[in-house]
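Table S4 entry, Acetyl-coenzyme A synthetase.
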Amino acid sequence: MIPADHLKAVYPPNENLMANSYVNSMEKYREMYQESIENPTAFWSRIAEDFFWKDPLPQNPAQFMTSNFDVTRGPICIEWMKGASTNICYNALDHIIRTKDMGGSIAFYWEGNDPSDSGTITYQELLTEVCKFANVLKSLGIAKGDRVAIYMPMVAELVIAMLACARIGAVHSIVFGGFSGESLADRIMDSKCSLLISADGVFRGKKAVHLKEIADEALDICSKAGHGVKKNIVLRHLPRVSTASIVEVGVDSVNVPWNDSRDIAWEEIMRDASPDCNPEWVDAEHPLFMLYTSGSTGKPKGVVHTTGGYMLYSATTFKYVFDYHRPEVYWCTADVGWITGHTYVTYGPLLNGATSVMFEGIPTHPDPGRMWAVVEKYKVSKFYTAPTALRALMRYGDSHVKKHSRDSLTILGTVGEPINPEAWYWYYDVVGEKRCAIVDTFWQTETGGHVLTPLPGATPLKPGCATLPFFGISPAIVDENGRVLEGEAEGYLVFSRPWPGIMRTVYGDHQRFETTYFKKFPGFYCTGDGARRDADGYYWVTGRIDDMLNVSGHLLSTAEVESALVEHGSVAEAAVVSVPHPIKGECLYCFVTPVNGIDWDSPFQKQLKEKVREKIGAIATPDYLQYAPGLPKTRSGKIMRRILRKIARNDRDLGDISTLAEPTVVENLFENRVALMI
């Protein structure tokens, strides 16, 4: 237990950090923040001067940024620096090499799943490989504006592929390697991708993931649906990794399934590719990538980010939030299949000339000290991970941490969900030895980068609090009716003005973009999260307030899981809610009504879990399945999930249930509830 006085503690910035920080006082933060709000053109134009623009930036403030956040006044529109042209790959590699003399500097230390597997790639080597692969893409007919799907493990070739797409103006759509074949197919078809880039497989701890087989399944689904993807470039990753610490290999690294008419070996097609490729200059508003995130309707939505604004925002948030100074070593543990990997593994670090660690493994393999062994090995200074990982490692005690040196660490970051105070203190006391700043960052796939965050040399810290807005961010808290709440308040977290890194649309469905983020509160971007503002103006994010849940830092749609469950022929109806989980933060609790005559036994429940894994992926596997002979519904037939959340938590304070069509259903569900393991 944490003493009550600790929970109210405020931790001032470390004096050693303040001495060299870009923002070394609250006065400096307020000065920069005020300019970013009152004169965004001047603020962001000055930052843009650090980058190369083929065609110059608009000088007129009215042209530098145009927007409409109010659906009652017309279509939602956000444009930054439209008319200026650039290339983000050129800025991340060519420009850094030429202006900072970074060619021989290490861009990435690659750390494999097995501790014996490692490698490095310099900025010049990365540029050469990117140019070669860009030429490969062009030889296959990929051009500016085409969409390319990427389904790969955490290897250098993943970064090479995404940068090669950016270099020629193609739009990359990366799918996390934990998603199923059906989920991959859905994303390929929705984004109308014409090419897939994948790999044979990968080890995650002692588990083998058959990426090529999953990719083949996805492409077969696409073909049957009339969307034929003609080519699949396959990286042969398995033959080059060690299996010394794998008990059961489970993957044949030689006899990987192969379709000669569709599959192309990465190594072969790269062999004779030219290392020279001029960048395609694109407008600042040209799409850079799309990344799918779960939607409350059950259908994932393709979040579209554009080149110029995302470039500025990813680079600027990385620089100031992690207070990065070359030649420090930075490590973000996220997979590039998620937005954190896009912004804070690839683009943000490279645009700042950073040296980063890229990690293929998991935190507990071959033992729970792996993360701290990597920190010691590479002398990591800035470390960024998820509260889920921290909570998992806390279970193993402090000894796995303390046997490794963490003297190099100065800043510890968290991402993906609010960090609970217990994990914050363990991170601060044990991992950081009470001398490192903790940057508890709040942001979303849609925001492109941090929106609420401490700055390590300026912001006094409160355990579990995302603190204050980043430059250009104008947060507000509103009630259910959209009324802005002043002072100390709790309600919906919204933003009242655009920033460069915000998403521009949902691919192929701008109306869904408007409905999801802007219709509930006209004039505001609605995050879908609740928040509390304290007496000091600090923001505490309290979690999702829609039909979404945050599992291990990854957003899942309850509707998507429900849809997967009812696809089982023996399921009549299903409803899904979130419940607390000691490691994941939240997990899935599913109420399932089988069709008449079906036994509620272990084999049937196993089938249901396998169905969800097949449709969505392992990350969505239900933790709890409850037999539900009926569900609480209003007389109009609407399921009352508020009641289900109470039942799942064994909370009998149900409030008003007068609108229930059959109140007796509730007691029946209480009698059948599954005890939570907390």
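The chain has a mean pLDDT of 92.
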